[in-house]
């Protein structure tokens, strides 16, 4: 991939993708980003030693590790086994005031989960992030944590980072999230571990439940009743637990779509996490007519795992809305690529959350897919994509969003001619070996 420098001297990569004649192979995507964040954060405040294998190599999870270390966590990585972390828990009262500002980089999960952790720590922490993260809404986490007794300040009337967090004595709350969000739910549950009395978080639709599963494995009595989750605090201790992180279904999704839309393809994806709160992309691709098989279903500790095989398919348009949206929110960029190729119209609604992700993904998907010749209508809460036309290679941009970079790369596998993606290096936020895997399977 050719490189160039931006104004700040950072290298910006341009990826060039041409459609290969055949797209075949086996891919083992990196460890799940959401589970990696939670495994290292919760084990850092547990009692005992934990081994976390297949930890995500993405920059987001490295940011979480760096922030936790600055707070006094004992996290080691053997140079010979980069994907394995050893964490010696310091206990729920063992963290200390950091000497400097923490940097969450591009990762909202890091910033929001840390707010939950720091809400009960009796010291001051300042957390910042990159320009994208500093424009993402933090009031959604500040509001409930303040009700519990934490003091959190942010820019623009406590809406945006950098954030200053001063922990305090917390009380349990009964809180209903206005929008389904695993990050906010998790921040509240983590704070609830140290709060006096019961905390219940209810959501309008079920978001990913990795925090609940991990806390249960660590000995916490987490009660789940339909859309509400409760914890009775204070919880004296968490027991350290070894975690083998499953492959990230959000990273696997690029290859599921690649194989389904390419005319001569068969891709096997190994060791993928298939937690039902995350498998919306499988349900949608099957509904679109994808030849997709789930094989070798098993479990890795408290999370389900499987292999997936996807072959060239004739896809049709679908409707995506309501409760399905949180189960595939991060996969919508690549599902939109599938929709461009599918016959008929795909309508995605109830997904206004896409406007407050790493970029405004509704706006940027509409503009970048249109550059490739797709017919895409932007709606306030989603997209209408009229598929079936041929995509044409063109110059487009990730806008600094990892999921947009990879989705456009996948579009390039079927577009006529060459697709050039600017700022392609951002794939490293969640999937550093993405372009390598693309080369291996026949693209780039
Ligand atoms: C995540 C939850 C989702 C998702 C994000 C990771 C998590 O965000 O989009 O990539 O690990 O909890 P929200 O909680 O904002 O929905």
Give, in spatial order, the strands making up the sheet with the most strands.
4-17-19-18
> How many beta-strand segments?
25
Binned, the helix content reads 25-40%
Rg from C-alpha positions? 21 Å
The CATH topology of the largest domain turns out to be UDP-n-acetylglucosamine1-carboxyvinyl-transferase, Chain
Ligands: shikimate-3-phosphate
Give start-end ranges of low-pLDDT stretches: none
Number of helical stretches of at least 4 residues: 13
Task: Give the class from helix and strand content and strand pairing.
Answer: alpha/beta
Mean pLDDT: 96
Just name the CATH architecture of the largest domain.
Answer: Alpha-beta prism
What's the CATH superfamily of the largest domain, by name?
Answer: Enolpyruvate transferase domain
How far the N terminus sits from the C terminus, by CA atoms, comes to 9 Å
> How can the largest sheet be summarized?
4 strands, mixed
Q: Which overall shape is indicated by the principal axes computed on the Cα atoms?
A: globular
Beta-strand percentage? 25-35%
Taken together, the total number of domains comes to: 2
CATH class of the largest domain: Alpha Beta
